[in-house]
Design brief:
single chain, alpha+beta, Ubiquitin-like (UB roll), five-stranded mixed sheet, 2 helices, 28% strand
Length: 90
């Protein structure tokens, strides 16, 4: 099962400059674990003590996983997972 993860610009240095990475996994957690296995530098950018960092929003085909089953959300072949860092400021 191939899943495409879109990497935001601020995290691309840890993904060898790639804007997209193909991963495998039946859930969001498994897919992101595979992403970190391929690009270990992303681990600290995405996770803190095993939980997704609060400023990293994860979307599956433009739907926020917080409104689905969060990290346990099931994935299907060909789905796009977008990592969107929260932006703050005034």
């Amino acid at each position: 099962m191939a899943i495409l993860v879109q990497i935001p610009t601020p995290m691309r240095d840890q993904a060898d400059g790639k804007a997209e990475v193909t991963v495998v996994g039946e859930t969001v957690q498994a897919a992101l674990d595979d992403l970190v296995r391929q690009h270990p530098g992303l681990g600290t950018k995405l996770f803190d003590k095993g939980k997704i960092r609060p400023y990293v929003n994860v979307f599956i085909d433009e739907e926020d996983i917080r409104y689905l089953d969060d990290m346990d959300t099931k994935l299907r072949d060909g789905v796009i997972v977008a990592l969107i860092p929260a932006v703050a400021g005034g």
